[in-house]
Write a structure and sequence with these properties.
Strand content: under 5%
Largest sheet: none
Order of helices and strands: HHHHHHHHHHHHH
Structural class: mainly alpha
Distance between the termini: 47 Å
Shape: elongated
Number of helices: 13
Helix content: over 70%
Number of strands: 0
Length: 277
């Protein structure tokens, strides 16, 4: 009969133990979510490719006279200019990654995750999974377009692979900056508001001319201290120089520092935001 106590000695039902997911499983689940969000928004893949390549076409056709300067490193300005889209694409990755994370903050998704046993860095790594894919895809597209218009990659096929690896690392580092902005300010509008500042950072670099050919003193000084110059020069060296150990060391080194610092600061900011949730 219902309501009666269980017979003496009867075994009580035992709840099945809840298996705690591993950090890798958490990263893969959130990474899959991030990737699907990118695939469902084709603009996140198309615009970072189309806009930089439009600027590349304009610059390659309009600044060709710069190759007549004594000491210019190549006879075709398109070879020199192709490195810039890789950096501009990284800026779009930064804004997209930051905006997506800010949307999760605004919709309360991040607050709901704070009530689960989710590991903070796994959340951040998963969120940047989409940024990694976009960075990789756009790098391959830039290389393919460069080959189609006659750009010669002096470092050969192996150099192309190294170039894709470097540009993807740059994109991930900049995505970390976007994530940091999202976690600090919490809105997509704030993240997008930083885009002009990031774009100016590309403009005030060696994107249009080699640093030693920049005649304006203040511009040359700013470009020399601007880390973006060395990221662009690392990519450019694989296109027009070949295997330049110094340029590659500076390019990979600065890209790695940006990625480590940005992701480390983002982890701290994420911990603080989850603590406030």
């Amino acid at each position: 009969m219902s309501g009666l106590a269980s017979p003496v000695g009867a075994a009580e039902p035992v709840a099945a133990p809840v298996r705690k997911s591993s950090v890798l499983e958490q990263v893969l689940v959130l990474g899959r979510r991030s990737l699907l969000r990118v695939l469902r928004s084709p603009a996140q893949l198309i615009f970072p490719v189309v806009f930089p390549m439009m600027l590349f076409a304009v610059n390659a056709s309009g600044l060709g006279a710069a190759t007549k300067l004594p000491g210019f490193p190549t006879d075709h300005y398109r070879d020199f200019a192709l490195a810039v889209p890789f950096m501009q694409g990284a800026l779009f990755v930064a804004i997209s990654a930051g905006t997506d994370l800010a949307r999760d903050i605004e919709t309360g998704f991040l607050s709901r995750l704070s009530m689960t046993p989710m590991w903070g860095p796994a959340l951040l790594a998963g969120q940047l999974g989409g940024a990694f894919v976009v960075g990789l895809v756009q790098s391959v597209v830039y290389v393919a377009i460069g080959l189609a218009v006659g750009v010669g990659f002096q470092s050969g096929p192996a150099g192309v692979l190294v170039l894709i690896a470097l540009s993807t690392l740059i994109a991930v580092g900049f995505a970390g900056i976007g994530a940091l902005l999202a976690l600090r300010f919490g809105t997509g509008e704030a993240v997008q508001g930083f885009f002009p500042l990031l774009f100016v950072g590309v403009f005030l670099s060696s994107s249009s001319l080699p640093r030693d050919l920049i005649q304006t003193d203040w511009f040359r000084t700013v470009a020399t201290y601007n880390p973006v110059s060395y990221l662009i020069e690392g990519v450019r060296s694989l296109i027009i120089t070949g295997w330049d150990a110094q340029a590659l060391a500076l390019g990979f080194g600065i890209a790695a520092v940006i990625a480590v610092v940005a992701l480390g600061a983002s982890t701290v900011a994420l911990r603080g935001r989850l603590g406030r949730s």
